[in-house]
Amino acid sequence: MTLAEDPTAEVTDLLQRLIRNECVNDGTPSSGHEVRSVDLLEDYLRLPGAEMKRYEPVPGRANLVLRIEGSDPKAPSLHLMGHTDVVPVTASGWKHDPFAGELIDGDVWGRGAIDMLDVTASMAVAVRRLMQSGFRPKGTLIYSAMADEEALGTHGAQWLTENAWDDVRSDFLVTEFGGARLPLSGPPKLPIMTAEKGSQWTRLRVRGTPGHGSTPYRSDNALVKAAEVITRIARYKAPLQLDERWKRILERLDLPAALRVAFSNPATFDLVLDRAPAGAAPIFYAATRTTFSPNIAHAGAKLNVIPDNAEIDVDIRTLVGDDGDKVRNMLRDAIGDLWSEVEIVAEGDNPATESPLRSPLWDTLTNVTKKLIPGAETVPFLVWGATDARYFRRKGVVSYGYGLMSERISFGEFIKMFHANNERIDQESLRLSTELFKQTARAFVG
């Protein structure tokens, strides 16, 4: 690869500028300001051969969609989807300014460097380089930069799939996140995210009886009961689902035979969980069961008043088939004899989604990966959080999460940087991802 062909400097610069735009989404309609990055990307991608449209459901919450129309209507189409918003930061916890986008010892630092401005930038550079080369595909190629992904996609992917479907529809789609090397021996094992968990975020109200704070003996304190409810939920283990997807994952992992057998058996799975490769135990746990994490609690109106109610917000991430009444039954099992003191006052409705484990796009991503990282193997996996892909899967689009990470950042470090301090990405990962998206587009729709 010549210096002119090497995309590293270009994708590094674009990522730095996206970070500096500081498109922080705190969940309110007036946050995000994704219009800043849409202005940047629209200017960067303005070349002959493509049609670009902007959508702004709420002032400042802009989305960009670029289309390169294919010459053959029967050829499969491909959508490369990024997002431009990032989550808030606590700047005091960072080693470097989270919005300076500094390049330090080969790493770009800043909020969004991993989630997912690196992929958004890599996809944009790949598309621009394709256009500069005169790329005229058989199948339509789409690139999008979505708003509001970090707050459920209300002003981004959800709005576009409901209001501008003809502009974003495709047969296949790639978005965040995958390609971080699993912490296993042998050839590199790179996960392609073929599914993602759903979310049934739930608010519980625990009832008590008000009284004076100076006489707590045998009081019916809602906060005290809520503390016990929180503890029980945190300790609860939902039923294991060692399904076909999990079996496929195990088949591709270089685990000792005894450990592989133990991880395929519900009776022994939890017993050997802490013997999983470094950094893998939390992921194995999340991949095989619905999870419950009580993360917010509120109670009390005045310090000297025993609270008569307390509210608990529980982050519930569901596997396919675990939603609605199944989740409520799990909560009842977790809370036990205190269930009569609890009511559900709000809950979300975001079922899990999945795509086929094998498809023409899977094969293309695998083949391109092997060219860029000789000896690498792709492994089906699932996103334990949420991405915009769910809106497209529900409309029948085969959707995967993927990119390519170098060896510089370990799997454990990669996972810990999501929504955390000191987020960063190395330049070799940026180069690999850019080449992945460029070569995948050429091979799949070219």
Description:
The protein is α+β, with helices and mostly antiparallel strands and 446 residues long. It has 14 helices and 19 strands. The protein has helices at 8-20, 35-44, 117-132, 157-163, 165-168, 222-235, 244-252, 257-262, 281-288, 325-335, 360-372, 389-393, 411-416, 427-445, and strands at 51-55, 63-68, 78-83, 103-104, 107-109, 141-146, 172-175, 189-196, 198-199, 202-207, 211-212, 291-299, 305-306, 309-318, 342-347, 353-354, 377-383, 398-401, 424-426. The strands form five sheets. It has a six-stranded mixed β-sheet with strand order 1-2-6-3-7-18. Strands 9, 10, 12, 14 and 15 form a five-stranded antiparallel β-sheet that branches. The protein is globular and about 80 Å long. It starts with 7 loop residues before the first helix and ends with a helix. The model has no long low-confidence stretch (mean pLDDT 94).
List the helices and strands and how they pair.
Elements lengths: L7 H13 L14 H10 L6 E5 L7 E6 L9 E6 L19 E2 L2 E3 L7 H16 L8 E6 L10 H7 L1 H4 L3 E4 L13 E8 L1 E2 L2 E6 L3 E2 L9 H14 L8 H9 L4 H6 L18 H8 L2 E9 L5 E2 L2 E10 L6 H11 L6 E6 L5 E2 L5 H13 L4 E7 L5 H5 L4 E4 L9 H6 L7 E3 H19 L1
Parallel strand pairs: 3-6, 3-7, 7-18, 8-17
Antiparallel strand pairs: 1-2, 2-6, 4-5, 5-19, 8-16, 9-14, 10-14, 10-15, 11-13, 12-14
Helix pairs in contact: 1-3, 1-14, 3-14, 11-14
